[in-house]
């Protein structure tokens, strides 16, 4: 008799345990598609679509790339009255802070095993989740300088060690940068110099500006132009440069000794998403070990520690060992610097 | 007979009114309302934060950018016409050998997405470009292409086919008897060309000129990739509109300024058009000259020009087979992988074909309706300022305006913004001016008195149009279809903003690959696009030449 009771109790506990799951399953049965706006590169986008569809049979994932993070936000703003997307994916967290303020996102606390909202990096604390859980970082890159080694050799140029070395007049006309008014990548690099040089930051930029022939409005073409040897350097991010090197191009990435800042890649659920359950599942899926490791194949640095051996070039340990001065993003500082950057670079660009 | 008398008692019959109504409604719904909505909502946002002053020297900057825009447009128009005019005369008048092949080849630039064309110019003429290197061996240092020079080269390349198609369509409508008369009176061919052909071609030259001018003003791809520091209005709007730290007032000010400028421009053009109103009443085929010297010269000239113009596209083909192509004469290794990767995206081809099949008929029919309206009802010509607007407004602005205007609208319970309807509408609105212009040029040469005669004999306006007028503008309509098809396939800026789930077409793929730095894959997709549209244009050209022969 006792055993019957205990069996019943066990059944009840099991049922209680599975009820939410079953309930969720029922809800999800109604959600047959997931729309993700993402500016991540093609192969990663294909992979996340295929894998998520495999894990959720019957679900169709649509990934839409409106052509840059800024265009993605424009699209979300235009659709605010009737959101079409469920997830906003990729682009650094400052974009997500803006989206949060515009009311474009809704909170969700990820349940992916091993994901923590804060990461310890060399004693510094990097926030991976927004304090209200509106967005979460899913991988990282670093700021610095991409260099075309052939052009440097051909022109017998010294290699810059520090970011401020780009101010050297020998580099005149050879340094590329995306337009900071348009590209948050460029702003991330400027914010790094803000942290390095404080009040003196504009002295350095006045000089670097003289070496920059023009600020590219196409944020992505800066890497291609350096790859082709049209320019010797571009101020940019580590991942595209190192992927280009991996593909056999004569390029490399310099982590400046005076400072290299983490550029994070974030994601969040769109406010008013039509498929919120799948969207939550998707956030956890992107933070799963499987997708974190897949990103690492493309040199995205995972946000979960210990996933990769420290010898792996995509591991945080390996990259940190190459960086002399590691800087963390400081959203508060960026908020204050915004107007100044806008005015200063607006002026640089108008005068060119 | 007065202008209005052909409409019975000056009134428009119900069927014609209905057709006009539908056309005007389309433009109102998908252009006028969204743009006004966007301008008003951003103006409200701007005035709310009006306390902040505009950047220093903003006015001076605005004039500099305006001057840049018009100077570039002028240079591009000049070079485009200077090359296309002699070419078109040679092709249509001197039985140039295999001119059909050259002509099809010369439409390639029209089919190629601007992104890829700009990159191909970099491959050839960039600092490490193949031609730059070759010239260096000869001791010539080619100047930097990042700026005005690169823009003029890219835009001229891109617009020559426009000019060529419009001018050839024009030359085909010049009746042979005029030239025969001139020739029988002993006029030399040169004299006939300069005193007869070119003057009769003025409406088409003007039309081609306007199209090229406006294309240059509205171009984004070129300025984005090789514009360097040469700042133009379209780029200022685009880069401040889709921006991170951009001043939200700048795109608004520049948009309003651009709309004002284009209206002024159009008033001037309309005045010019009235001066060049050539009427021909018969269609009896065109005159061709049997002049060995001219034919040889023509064949030589067209071959040289074509080869020069096509070099960047040869570069695209080579790039499409390349593993890598940096700073060397030829790629370091070749592969078929790019095509294999692109072939996996077969749905992109299907989507492109579906859009082609829906948008092209819409814009061609709208083009004919508006063309007829502007021709027969001078009182409605003010509308032409509106139908021309999408030509110069950056496509992103059109995309966002339609998205914003219709994001909450539901049709039969289906949300519009998630459906392909808005994408079709956006592409149609954006490409309407491109087909409207050649159709208008066709109408410009028609004596509307013929329609009036038919109507006074009892035919309805619709019937008179279909039986009397339409056959005369058919050639222009064919060239409009060709240009329209090509421009629908390559539309990018609005599609990028507006495309719904599952509707990524070939041109979106090309942009995507370029943005990712996969230039080889982008080239492979572009090559497939060129082949696809090339087949389409060849069929249309074939149809139109068969049609043409009916009148000979």
Query: What can be said about the biggest beta sheet of chain A?
Result: 12 strands, mixed
| Helical segment count of chain A | 13
Q: Rounded to an integer, what's the Rg of chain B over CA atoms?
A: 24 Å
Task: Identify the CATH class of chain B.
Answer: Mainly Alpha
Number of domains of chain A: 2
> Using DSSP, what is the number of strands of chain B?
4
How many strands, which pairing sense, and closed or not: the largest β-sheet of chain B? 2 strands, antiparallel
Instruction: Going across the biggest sheet of chain B, name each strand in turn.
Output: 1-2
Overall, the morphology of chain B is globular
Main interface: chain pair and counts: A-B, 61 and 58 residues
First and last CA, distance of chain B: 32 Å
Say what the CATH topology of chain B is.
MetI-like fold
Number of domains of chain B: 1
Please tell me the CATH architecture of the largest domain in chain A by its name. Answer: 3-Layer(aba) Sandwich
Helical/strand content category of chain B:
mainly alpha
Averaged pLDDT of chain B: 84
Mean of the pLDDT scores of chain A? 89
**Strand residues, percent of chain A:** 15-25%
């Amino acid at each position: 008799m006792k055993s019957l009771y205990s069996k019943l109790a066990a059944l009840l506990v099991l049922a209680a345990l599975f009820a939410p799951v079953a309930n969720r399953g029922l809800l999800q049965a109604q959600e047959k598609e997931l729309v993700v706006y993402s500016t991540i590169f093609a192969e990663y986008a294909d992979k996340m679509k295929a894998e998520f569809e495999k894990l959720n049979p019957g679900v169709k994932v649509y990934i839409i790339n409106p052509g840059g993070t800024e265009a993605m936000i424009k699209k979300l703003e235009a659709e605010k009255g009737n959101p079409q997307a469920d997830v906003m994916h990729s682009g650094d967290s400052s974009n997500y802070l803006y989206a949060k303020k515009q009311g474009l996102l809704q909170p969700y606390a990820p349940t992916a095993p091993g994901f923590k909202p804060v990461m310890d990096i060399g004693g510094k604390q990097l926030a991976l989740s927004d304090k209200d859980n509106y967005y979460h970082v899913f991988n990282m890159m670093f700021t610095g300088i991409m260099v075309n080694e052939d052009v440097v050799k051909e022109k017998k140029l010294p290699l810059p060690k520090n970011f401020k070395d780009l101010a050297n007049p020998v580099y005149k006309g050879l340094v590329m940068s995306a337009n900071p008014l348009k590209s948050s990548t460029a702003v991330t690099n400027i914010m790094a110099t803000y942290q390095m040089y404080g009040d003196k930051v504009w002295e350095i930029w006045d000089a670097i500006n003289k070496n920059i022939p023009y600020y590219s409005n196409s944020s992505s073409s800066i890497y291609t132009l350096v790859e082709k040897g049209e320019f010797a350097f571009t101020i940019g991010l580590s991942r595209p440069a190192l992927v280009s090197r991996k593909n056999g191009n004569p390029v490399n990435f310099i982590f400046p000794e005076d400072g290299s800042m983490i550029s994070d890649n974030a994601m969040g659920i769109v406010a008013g998403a039509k498929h919120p359950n799948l969207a939550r599942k998707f956030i956890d899926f992107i933070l799963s070990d499987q997708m974190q490791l897949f990103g690492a194949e493309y040199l995205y640095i995972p946000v979960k520690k210990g996933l990769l051996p420290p010898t792996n070039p995509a591991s945080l340990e390996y990259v940190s060992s190459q960086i002399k001065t590691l800087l963390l993003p400081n959203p508060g500082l960026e908020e204050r610097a915004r107007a100044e950057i806008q005015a200063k670079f607006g002026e640089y660009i108008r005068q060119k | 007979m007065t202008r209005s008398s052909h409409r019975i008692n000056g009134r428009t019959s119900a069927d014609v009114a209905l057709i006009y109504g539908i056309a005007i409604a389309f433009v109102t719904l998908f252009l006028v309302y969204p743009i006004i909505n966007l301008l008003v909502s951003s103006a409200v946002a701007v005035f709310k934060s009006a306390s902040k002053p505009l950047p220093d020297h903003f006015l001076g900057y605005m004039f500099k950018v305006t001057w840049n825009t018009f100077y570039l447009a002028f240079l591009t128009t000049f070079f485009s016409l200077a090359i296309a005019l002699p070419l078109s005369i040679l092709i249509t008048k001197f039985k140039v050998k295999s001119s059909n092949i050259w002509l099809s080849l010369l439409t390639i630039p029209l089919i190629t997405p601007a992104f890829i064309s700009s990159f191909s110019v970099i491959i050839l003429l960039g600092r490490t470009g193949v031609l730059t290197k070759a010239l260096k061996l000869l001791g010539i240092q080619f100047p930097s292409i990042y700026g005005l020079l690169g823009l003029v080269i890219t835009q001229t390349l891109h617009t020559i086919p426009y000019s060529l198609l419009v001018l050839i369509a024009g030359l085909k409508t010049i009746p042979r008897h005029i030239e025969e008369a001139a020739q029988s009176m002993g006029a030399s061919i040169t004299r006939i060309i300069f005193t007869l052909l070119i003057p009769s071609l003025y409406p088409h030259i003007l039309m081609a000129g306007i199209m090229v001018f406006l294309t240059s003003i509205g171009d984004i791809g070129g300025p984005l990739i090789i514009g360097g520091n040469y700042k133009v209005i379209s780029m200022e709007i685009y880069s401040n509109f889709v921006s991170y730290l951009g001043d939200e007032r700048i795109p608004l000010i520049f948009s309003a300024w651009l709309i004002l400028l284009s209206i002024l421009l159009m008033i001037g053009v309309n005045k010019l058009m009235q001066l060049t109103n050539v009427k021909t009443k018969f269609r009896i085929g065109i005159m061709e000259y049997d002049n060995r010297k001219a034919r040889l010269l023509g064949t030589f000239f067209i071959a040289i020009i074509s080869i020069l113009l096509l070099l960047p596209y040869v570069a695209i083909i080579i790039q499409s087979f390349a593993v890598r192509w940096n700073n060397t004469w030829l790629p370091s290794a070749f592969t078929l992988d790019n095509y294999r990767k692109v072939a996996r995206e077969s749905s992109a081809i299907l989507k492109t074909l579906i859009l082609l099949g829906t948008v092209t008929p819409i814009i061609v029919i709208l083009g004919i309706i508006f063309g007829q309206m502007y021709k027969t009802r001078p009182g409605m010509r003010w509308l032409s300022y509106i139908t021309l607007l999408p030509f110069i407004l950056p496509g992103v602005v059109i995309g966002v305006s339609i998205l914003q205007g219709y994001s909450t609208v539901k049709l039969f319970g289906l949300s519009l913004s998630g459906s392909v309807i808005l994408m079709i509408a956006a592409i149609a609105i954006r490409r309407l001016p491109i087909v409207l212009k050649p159709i208008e040029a066709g109408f410009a040469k028609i004596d509307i008195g013929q329609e009036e005669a038919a109507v006074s004999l009892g035919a309805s306006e619709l019937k008179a149009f279909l039986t009397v007028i339409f056959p005369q503008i058919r050639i222009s309509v064919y060239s409009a279809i060709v240009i329209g098809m090509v421009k629908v396939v390559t539309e990018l800026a609005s599609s990028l903003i507006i495309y719904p789930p599952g509707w990524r077409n070939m041109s979106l793929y090309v942009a995507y690959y370029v943005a990712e730095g996969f230039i080889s894959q982008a080239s492979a997709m572009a090559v497939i696009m060129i082949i696809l549209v090339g087949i389409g244009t060849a069929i249309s050209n074939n149809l139109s030449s068969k049609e043409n022969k009916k009148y000979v």
